[in-house]
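TA notes, week 10

Several of you asked for a full example with nothing omitted. So below is the full record: structure tokens for the whole chain, then the designed sequence directly under it. When grading your own attempts, check the secondary structure regions first.
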């Protein structure tokens, strides 16, 4: 572990497989060209000083004791507790982590609003794991009940097919740049969803209730990769929404908010917040006007936000 370093990890969006990825469904996710950077530098004050910012400025300052890693100052209590949990998990994987440090200053910066649900936590876990020299997925498992797809995606330069069966992880880098990407939009629903709460609620369900759905979602994921037209793509998105609506016993987002939209609308990640994917044969201008009139102003085109080529020297993330 170097006492001075810089790192970068990508944000992410899950296109298919939300919830059921935790029950071995095949999922598709894409890394974003917006992410999180982290710089680490030594100091001599005997403390770990932390400052976190996003596009709106500094949102967190914290101080932790060394070597005990106890929180001393936290301008955001929940963020301080979360960082403390992650730091202790790193210490569990690497007992000498910061054990002999005379002081450290860590600065993190998100290139997106931290409320958007684009991977502020997963990119941080990937960055800290790389800095500490521990396995990112093992660290993730100690602090989260999620599948870990987002941590893998954080360090990938290409879209991923991700599958987790028990403790076995498969992550395959693929090409996924649909020829109709001009007609695909990501729309923020102006409501941050708590992914951890959603995961915990879902895990309380009986897996036997949706065994068939796991296979169906995996098949949809495979078909989406080869969809030759936007019409076929939209049918697959709608089928995915219908299946998950039955699994979750909740109405699909299009039925609730966008019933008059001419095209498909699919929830991404935890239902009820964060982003949706909108796809229409009417073109991007129609979709942009539609969502603007509905009061949703944070809209990105597929080409605008999805990472398309390697731009930073990143290390391969070791898989379990």
């Amino acid at each position: 572990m170097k006492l001075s370093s810089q790192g970068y990890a990508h944000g992410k969006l899950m296109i298919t497989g939300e919830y059921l990825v935790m029950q071995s469904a095949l999922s598709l996710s894409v890394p974003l060209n917006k992410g999180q950077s982290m710089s680490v530098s030594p100091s001599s004050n005997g403390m770990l000083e932390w400052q976190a910012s996003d596009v709106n400025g500094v949102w967190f300052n914290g101080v932790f004791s060394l070597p005990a890693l106890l929180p001393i100052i936290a301008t955001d209590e929940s963020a301080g507790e979360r960082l403390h949990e992650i730091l202790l998990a790193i210490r569990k994987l690497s007992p000498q982590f910061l054990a002999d440090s005379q002081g450290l200053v860590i600065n993190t910066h998100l290139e997106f609003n931290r409320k958007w649900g684009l991977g502020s936590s997963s990119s941080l876990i990937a960055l800290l794991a790389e800095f500490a020299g521990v396995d990112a997925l093992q660290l993730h498992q100690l602090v989260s009940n999620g599948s870990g797809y987002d941590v893998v995606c954080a360090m990938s330069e290409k879209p991923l097919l991700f599958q987790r069966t028990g403790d076995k992880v498969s992550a395959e880098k693929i090409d996924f740049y649909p020829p109709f990407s001009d007609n695909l939009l990501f729309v923020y629903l102006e409501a941050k969803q708590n992914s951890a709460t959603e995961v915990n609620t879902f895990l309380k369900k009986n897996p036997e209730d949706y065994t068939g759905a796991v296979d169906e979602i995996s098949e949809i994921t495979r078909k989406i990769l080869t969809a030759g037209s936007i019409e076929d793509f939209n049918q697959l998105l709608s089928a995915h929404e219908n299946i998950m609506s039955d699994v979750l016993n909740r109405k699909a987002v299009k039925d609730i908010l966008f019933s008059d939209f001419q095209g498909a609308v699919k929830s991404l990640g935890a239902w009820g917040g964060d982003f949706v994917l909108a796809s229409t044969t009417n073109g991007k201008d129609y979709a942009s006007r539609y969502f603007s009139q509905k009061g949703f102003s944070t809209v990105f085109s597929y080409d605008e936000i999805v990472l398309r080529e390697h731009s930073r020297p990143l290390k391969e993330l070791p898989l379990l």
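The CA atoms of residues 3 and 289 lie 49 Å apart. Use that as a sanity check on your answer.
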